[in-house]
Design brief:
Low-confidence stretches: none
Radius of gyration: 21 Å
Number of strands: 15
Structural class: mainly beta
CATH class of the largest domain: Mainly Beta
Helix content: under 10%
Number of helices: 0
Mean pLDDT: 87
Strand order of the largest sheet: 4-3-2-1-5
Largest sheet: 5 strands, antiparallel
Distance between the termini: 47 Å
Strand content: over 45%
Length: 185
Amino acid sequence: MASPTDIRKGRVIMYQGVPHLVMEMLHRTQGRQAGFIQTTLRNLQTGTSTAVKFRSTESVEFCHVSTQALEFSFTDEQGVHFMNPETFEDTVIPAELVAEQRQYLVPNYAYDLLFVDDRPVEVRLPASIEMKITESPEGIRGDSASNVQKPAKTESGLTVQVPLFIKEGDVIRVSTETGKYLGRA
């Protein structure tokens, strides 16, 4: 058991018998009263977020976590499949836990998976990812007076606004935070 003052963003704690990821953390004091830690926790089983206050006199249990770099393979009714490139072992994560990240998953690309007690609970995306354009309408000639953009569909199904010169088959970099075009790869 540890003190709530040891809580940091990105750590995993046990809260109400369920592992929770610390999304935000703020230490607060109110005048003469004892301080407390204001946190935003995401339940790693359901994916829901909650705001929780911990008094400095309480105790917190930290979970054992590890990270592995695994390659995305495919998605089916069981969930999202990742493969260890060294042992070829298959790891499956329930589809609802990676619903937000699904549009950034590209086959044969390595992603960091967060494991809590040897169970995968989260996919950590890189800041940007390279994706191949599968559908892109032709740009209209003479339509370049300003920064004109057109929609293009990537191999994962994500639609991105790109400049007119991008065509099918091009590989582009996309921000995983904003979903915006960053440039050619």
